[in-house]
Amino acid sequence: MSNSGPFGTAVEAKRLVENLLTDLRTLSTEARKKHIQVKEAAESGLVKIKNISTASSEQNLLTNIRCASAELLQPLILGCSSKNARLVQVSLQAIQKMVQHRASAHIIVNELWHLMEAECEELRVLQTLTPLVSTELLVTGQWLAKCLVMCFRLNFAKDPIVINTASATVRQMVNCVYERVIQEDGLRNSDTPIDHHTVRLHSKAPPPTLRPCASDGYMLFY
Fold first, then answer.
1. Segment 36-76, tens digit of pLDDT
2. 24, 104, 118, 197: least surrounded by Cβ within 10 Å?
């Protein structure tokens, strides 16, 4: 996501609102009579976005959208839960846009897990996992682990394209995790020593003295 000052943020916010409105309209149209709950949720989402947009200034529109992200994700999660290919495609497309603006990641990770288990739109699941992990510290700890597990499991998918994409996504995620560690080290002037007495063999938790990104890196292949 760009950080080009207030003007850049305002442009991003406007673009995000326009994209979400388009995606929700598409979701509502595609749902029609067969998925009434999805259609109604999409229409409710349209109203919420319009209300937020009307009540917000250019400076705080993006912040207000982020604060309401759990609510705005609801029709998209329902679209994914339908397991209807077209609804899932539209929903994941919108979710990917929201991820770039730090939407509620835990809700998204759980729904992606359900799609993976249902073998539904596996390639798009992987395409959504990539921005989730690459967006700075959006997923950490158990949620990062869950994203990686999805990639590992999709390495055993039936579609060779999915398998190849899953392998590439794992490599990208691992690189991202250790890039975070390097960035985290650069933010601190002095290293925090590890108290080796706190390290336990086969422990399911990292040493308590490690910083957050270092903890993720430690647990990645521990």
1. 999 999 999 999 999 999 998 888 898 899 899 999 999 99
2. 197
Question: Rounded to an integer, what distance in angstroms lies between the CA atom of residue 28 and that of residue 145?
Answer: 33
Q: Write out pLDDT tens, residues 123-169.
A: 999 999 988 888 777 888 889 989 999 999 999 999 999 999 999 99
Q: How many helices (H) and strands (E) does the chain have?
A: 10, 0
Report the distance separating Cα 222 and Cα 219, nearest Å. 5
Q: Which of 118, 128, 116, 30 is nearest to 75 (CA)?
A: 30
Token couple for 89: 């495609």
Structure tokens at 140: 């950490």
CA distance 43 to 51: 13
Q: Report the alpha-carbon distance of residue 28 to residue 165 in Å, rounded.
A: 30
